[in-house]
Amino acid sequence: MTNTHLATQLRRHSMLLILLALYVLVAFTARGFMTIDNQLNILRNIAVPGMIAFGMALVIIVGEIDLSVGSMVAVSACLTAWVVEKASGDAFEPAWYFVALGIAVTLCFAGFVGWFNGMLRQRVGVPTFISSLAMMATLAGMANLITNGSAIEAFPSWYYIIGSGRFLGVPVPVYLLAVAFIFTFVLANFTTLGRSIYAVGGNMEAARLSGIDIWRTKKICMIIVALFAATGGIIYSSLINSGNPTIARGMELEVISAVIIGGVSLFGGRGSIWGAFVGVLFLGVLINAMTLWGFNPYAQQVVRGALILGAVFVNFYIDRK
């Protein structure tokens, strides 16, 4: 019994052990990896995909998927810049309330898109794989339509603080990542909604017969991931000080990869926010390590693809167990 329990724990925390082994390997083979600045740089780089991964983990656990998050990041950056530009009359240094208006409009738009994706699933019965794929193309087109295919530079000089600023030496996006983690961790583990998410993902019919509003649960998860993606777009617009329709291309694959690597089951009903964080941190550390090792950028893509494929196999193996 003890050996069985130990084997179960090893499988459950296998990705964390691999992450620790990677840390040890890179620490001894890559100069400067363990410096505080480099570790903060890793956390800053994974801030946007990380917070989206937390939302995506909820979506996959509840039995759905959202392929439109990358396009949501792009259109959110562009929409924020567009609103600031139009509301301020293309002022050289827009007032703070114009920026606040742009952020508010963007978050409301993202919430509506998440709700709409959930409504399509409920009313029409279209799988979210299909509907979010269509939404991905739609949002990408909207980003280009808003900007006419070029960047909109409409932000005031202080706007860089959101994406590039520091507080007590720690980048602001890292704080936003921490807030997103705490929010989703508490929601998933200590709330009635969190228990409903696991119940719906594990057995939707049984959850319905238990009195759980399954469609409300799914829509909330879709709204959360859309809001996190919009927040990521705002962060990126601050980093580059503009709304650019070309940012975050392929980010949906990076996010889903991190979630799968972190042990969230593609069949729904199993996984954790902590596992999603471990997965996104693993990818961040791996990319940082390959850069320090001097890997060819194209070779990095090959390695990442192979690891994702391996993680999928491990995921299926654990599900069979």
Short description:
The chain is mainly alpha-helical and 321 residues long. Helices cover 76% and strands 1% of the residues.
Describe the structure.
The protein has 321 residues and is mostly helical. Helices cover 76% and strands 1% of the residues. It has helices at 2-12, 14-29, 36-45, 47-61, 69-87, 96-124, 128-147, 161-164, 172-190, 192-202, 204-209, 214-240, 251-261, 273-293, 297-320; strands at 166-167, 170-171. Strands 1-2 form a two-stranded antiparallel sheet. Helix 5 (69-87) packs across helix 12 (214-240). The longest helix has 29 residues, at 96-124. It starts with a helix and ends with a helix. The model has no long low-confidence stretch (mean pLDDT 88).
Overview features:
mainly alpha; two-stranded antiparallel ribbon; 2 strands; globular
